[in-house]
Design a protein that fits this description.
The protein has 196 residues and is mainly beta. Helices cover 7% and strands 44% of the residues. The protein is elongated, with a radius of gyration of 20 Å.
Amino acid sequence: PVTTPKADYTISGGTFNGSVVSSEDNKQFITGGTFKYMPNEEYLAENMLLYPADGNYSVGTQEDATTAGAKATIGQIAYTDLADAVANVEEGETITLIADDLTARGVIVPSGSNFTIDFNGHTYVVTRNPAGSTGTQTQAFQLLRDSNLTFKNGTIRGGMSDIKMVIQNYSNLTLENMTLDAAGSTNATCEALSVN
C-alpha cells in the first residue's frame, strides 16, 4: 500500500474570513493571525492566546492580548472582562486574570457554579454595573447558592459609591491570599464580605 505523508503546516499570520478546519491530527499549529470565526482551541500553539479584536478573533501572545484589552483567560481563550469569562466558564475550570481591571463591572456568579478565579496578583476595581438582585445592585460580586468557588491571589475593591459590599456570598466560598479592600473602596461604609 501507498503511505501518504502527513501534512505539516503552521499559520503564523494573515486574515481568515472563513472557518479554519484541520482534517489531520495536527494540533497547535496557529501562532498568529486574525479570524472571522473562532478556531478550535486545540489548534493554538503553546503559550498563544485567542482574543477578541475589532469584531474578529486574533491569536498572539499574552502581551498582544492585554494590549487589545483582554483581562482574563480560560485555558488559551482570552476575554475582555471577568464577567464575560464567568459567563463562559465550565465546571471545574480556572479563570485567570492577566491584567488589572480598574474600570470593571460587577459580577454575578449563578447558582450551581463550580470554578476557581485566580486573580494572579491583579487588582479588580468595580466602577460600573454593580452586582446584586434587582433594586439592590450594591455589590462588586454576588455569589449565588449551591456553588463551590475559590478566589485566590488578588485584590477586589469597590470603585463607586453604590458599592456597599465587596462580596455578597451565598455560596461555598474559599478565599486564598485575597484582599477584599473595603477600606480602599469609594464608599466609606463598604463591607468586605457579607455571608448569608
